[in-house]
Amino acid sequence: MSTEQHLIQVCQQIAQSGKTPSMALLRAKKTIPASMPQMVAALKSWQNAPEVNATTASIEEQTVKTSDAERITSLERQIMELTLRINQLETSLSEVMQSQKRKQGQD
């Protein structure tokens, strides 16, 4: 998400809370660094088309959530694969240790 998109989303959140977005509120609520000209541009953009910006922000938020869900699924799959590999390694190690004990017993 670009800085301007983030700032527009913040304006939308401010508006949804029942307040009118302003430079002071935008500066207080933003979570990423932004210059004054970027904040002015985002505020003007939001003021010119608040409904359009709300839809765009909502779509981007859904995309991020989807990406997060895909990432979580991928990470869960990796965890299962690594767990399986650990179990295989533990079994192999146990077999090697038993083999060594048998050899020591023969000596």
Low-confidence stretches: none
Q: Per the principal axes of the C-alpha atoms, what is the gross shape?
A: rod-shaped
Annotation, overall tally of beta strands = 0
Approximately what portion of the residues adopt beta-strand conformation?
under 5%
Q: Please describe the biggest sheet, giving its number of strands, its sense, and whether it closes into a barrel.
A: none
End-to-end distance? 68 Å
Rg on CA atoms, Å: 27 Å
Q: Determine the structural class based on helices, strands and strand pairing.
A: mainly alpha
Mean pLDDT over the residues: 84
Tell me the number of helical segments per DSSP (H or I, 4 or more residues long).
4
Helix content estimate: over 70%
What letter string, H or E per element, gives the SSE order? HHHH
Structural description of this entry:
By secondary structure, the chain is an all-alpha fold. Helices cover 85% and strands 0% of the residues. Helix 1 crosses helix 3 (36-48). It is rod-shaped.
SSE diagram, text form:
Layout (H helix, E strand, L loop, with lengths): L2 H14 L6 H7 L6 H13 L1 H57 L1
Helix pairs in contact: 1-3, 1-4, 3-4
Write a concise keyword list for the protein shown above.
0% strand, 4 helices, 107 residues
Short description:
This protein has helices at 3-16, 23-29, 36-48, 50-106.
